[in-house]
C-alpha cells in the first residue's frame, strides 16, 4: 500500500477533510438550522446535501495542485467529510439558532409568568375589594342599628317620662 501511494493519499485526504460524520448524525444535529421544509420520505443523503448546499456557498478558490473548486465538504457513500473550520461554522450557526429558540422560550415563559402574576393580583384585588365592601356595609349597618336603638331608647324614655308625669298629675289630682 505504501508503494502504491495509497497511504499518502489517505493522509492527504485526512488533512484536507479532517472531520467526518455519518449522514444520520449530520441530519440529526444540524436539521434545526435549515429553513427548508423536508418531507420525511426523502432520503437522508439528499436531505443532508440540500442542508449543506443551503448553509455553504461553494467556495471557488483554486488550489495549486488542481484547478477545481475547493468544496467545504465532500459527500461519501456513508459519511460526510468537512474541511477544517467548516464544522465550526455549522456549530456557530446551530448555536445561534438554539439561542434564538431559547430567547423565544424565555420570552414566552416570562410573558406567561407575568400574565399569571397579574391574574393573581387581580383576583386578590377583587377579594380585597369584596371584603372591604363587606366590612364597610357591616360597620354602616351596626352604626344605623345602634343609632336606631338609641333613638328607640330615647323615645321610650320620653314616653315613660310622659306616662310618669301623667300618673303623678292623676295622683296629685
UniProtKB/TrEMBL annotation:
SUPFAM superfamilies: P-loop containing nucleoside triphosphate hydrolases. Residues 1-95 form the Myosin motor domain. One of its GO terms (molecular function) is ATP binding. It comes from the Eukaryota. GO terms for cellular component: cytoplasm; membrane; myosin complex. The keyword Nucleotide-binding applies. Keywords: Actin-binding, ATP-binding, Motor protein, Myosin, Nucleotide-binding. InterPro entries: Myosin_head_motor_dom-like, P-loop_NTPase. The keyword Glycoprotein does not apply. GO terms for biological process: actin filament organization. Belongs to the TRAFAC class myosin-kinesin ATPase superfamily. Myosin family. This is Myosin motor domain-containing protein. It comes from Ditylum brightwellii.
Amino acid at each position: 500500500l505504501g508503494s502504491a501511494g495509497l497511504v499518502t493519499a489517505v493522509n492527504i485526504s485526512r488533512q484536507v477533510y479532517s472531520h467526518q460524520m455519518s449522514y444520520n448524525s449530520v441530519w440529526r444535529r444540524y436539521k434545526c438550522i435549515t429553513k427548508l421544509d423536508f418531507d420525511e420520505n426523502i432520503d437522508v443523503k439528499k436531505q443532508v446535501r440540500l442542508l449543506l448546499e443551503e448553509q455553504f456557498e461553494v467556495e471557488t478558490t483554486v488550489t495549486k495542485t488542481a484547478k477545481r473548486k475547493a468544496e467545504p465538504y465532500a459527500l461519501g457513500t456513508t459519511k460526510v467529510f468537512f474541511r477544517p473550520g467548516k464544522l465550526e461554522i455549522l456549530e456557530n450557526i446551530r448555536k445561534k439558532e438554539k439561542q434564538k429558540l431559547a430567547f423565544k422560550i424565555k420570552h414566552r415563559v416570562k410573558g406567561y409568568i407575568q400574565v399569571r402574576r397579574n391574574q393573581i393580583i387581580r383576583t386578590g384585588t377583587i377579594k380585597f375589594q369584596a371584603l372591604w365592601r363587606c366590612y364597610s356595609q357591616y360597620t354602616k349597618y351596626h352604626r344605623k342599628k345602634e343609632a336606631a336603638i338609641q333613638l328607640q331608647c330615647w323615645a321610650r324614655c320620653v314616653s315613660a317620662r310622659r306616662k310618669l308625669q301623667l300618673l303623678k298629675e292623676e295622683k296629685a289630682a
